[in-house]
Amino acid sequence: MIKPVPIAHALPGMWFHRLGGSGYHHAFVRKGFLLDARDIELLAEGGVDELLIDTDQGLDYLPEGDVESLSETPPSEAEQVETPSEPEKAAAPELEVSEAPPVLGAPAIVVPRSSMDEEIHRARKLYSEGKEKVVALFNDARLGNAVHADAVMPLVDEINASVSRHPDALLSVARLKTHDEYTYMHSVAVCALMVSLARRLGLPDEQVREAGAAGMLHDLGKAAMPIGVLNKPGALTDDEFKIMKAHPTRGWEMLRDSGGAAEAVMDVALHHHEKFDGTGYPHNLQGDAISLMARMGAVCDVYDAITSNRPYKKAWGPAESLQRMFSWKGHFDELVLKSFIRSVGIYPVGSLVRLESDRLGVILEQGDGSLLEPRVRIFFNARKREPVIIKDLDLSAKDCNDRIVGIESNDKWNFPNLEKLWLAQ
Questions:
Q1: What does the buried/exposed string (b/e) look like for 289-317 if buried means 16 or more CB atoms within 10 Å of the residue's CB?
Q2: 2-61 — its CATH code?
Q3: In the chain, which stretches have pLDDT less than 70?
Q4: Among residues 47, 77, 411, 412, which is most buried (max CB within 10 A)?
């Protein structure tokens, strides 16, 4: 579909069809190519205010009306807390789509990878062990027992080691949580995301560990929420939502009273629902008044929430989720969000994508170079609408003559058990 897009909404990965209106720019007389950040910058500098994109070949444009509440009114806790209630237009993006220095200027932490296959097996075992430990942690908190923050550090260290060996493996496995284990496994997933982001930002080792602990304990306050409200399968009432909004403060109080938690860990528990524009809670903090660690927590918390199936909301695909998050002006620190996208990839593992050859595939793992050239498992011909022989492509390989031209939604294709394709490494 051909859509007009204001230049302020243009994103790397959109397919340029032609300039909109009567616009002209000497560098864009050609038609039909994938936009990158430099292309968008040239257009904006040249005074172009609109372009036409082809959503069948690249990223879609999600105007204000398309990013809406995901269920009936009143919205559920996740919808009210974890997504913007009144989404606004995104500012002109400057997101680089290839590897770039970390936001903080320090070199990102890089170690030799194990294979995805090896680390997926380790990650599954770690995921199971992590669930047991987090369930026990929440049960202790629910019973009023002291919660010792250092008790989670062995698990955090294991997750850190897994992410260092292969950043895609545990993040992928953790996304497959069932809705009835969400409260617990969300903590494991956010821990892994925080570790990955902290490493991407080039934080020192001790701060990487603190980031992991903060992710593990950020939702501890939910242990103090009424079970009926916490596990309610439908939308919350206004009164129930007010109850749930108390969970950051309750988590901070638990960590404070138990003693031993690092200040950064306590701060993330208290402020992971603050928004960069000051419309979050509980303290309406704005901009740099929100600590870096809490800004990181906000991004990781929302990403895992919207890519997970919930009783009241079907998960969005990982690539679609990043696209939407990037469009929510004012919700996140944009620099932190851009580093997060680099840490998980523009096309995270499990994303359903269309290639220039009209074949569909799922992302297996990120490549070592450009974020636009991951490994993809091809399994379907979109033009002929028929399966093809399953084949793995390394898009960064010199002899590969195919490339990603857009993301696809499985809501459109309804492929059953899509995750089996990318988990079967």
A1: ebbbbbbbbbbbbbbbbbbbebebbebbb
A2: 3.90.105
A3: 12-13, 21-31, 36-38, 45, 56-113, 424-425
A4: 77
Instruction: Give dist(CA 291, CA 185) in Å, integer.
Output: 25
Q: For the domain bounded by 109-344, which CATH number is listed? A: 1.10.3210.10
Q: Which residues of 378-402 are buried (b: 16+ CB within 10 A; e: fewer)?
A: bbbeeeeeeeeeeeebbbeeeeeee
Phi/psi of residue 207, nearest 5 degrees: -75, -30
Evaluate the omega torsion of the peptide bond into residue 93 and state whether it is cis, within 30 degrees of 0: no
Q: Looking up tokens 């007009």, which residue turns up?
A: 4
**Strands 50-54, 15-19: pairing kind:** antiparallel
Give domain limits for the chain: 2-61, 109-344, 352-423
Would you give the distance in Å from CA 278 to the centre of its chain? 21
Enumerate residues 6+ apart whose C-beta is below 8 A from 376: 353, 355, 361, 362, 363, 364, 392, 393, 395, 404
Structure tokens that stand for 111 in this block: 């170690």
Residue 306 tokens, joined: 């919207």
Give pLDDT tens digits for 212-267. Answer: 999 999 999 999 999 889 888 888 889 999 999 999 999 999 999 988 899 999 99
Smallest CA-to-CA distance from 55 within 68, 42, 66 is with 66
Residues 418/425, Cβ–Cβ less than 8 Å = no
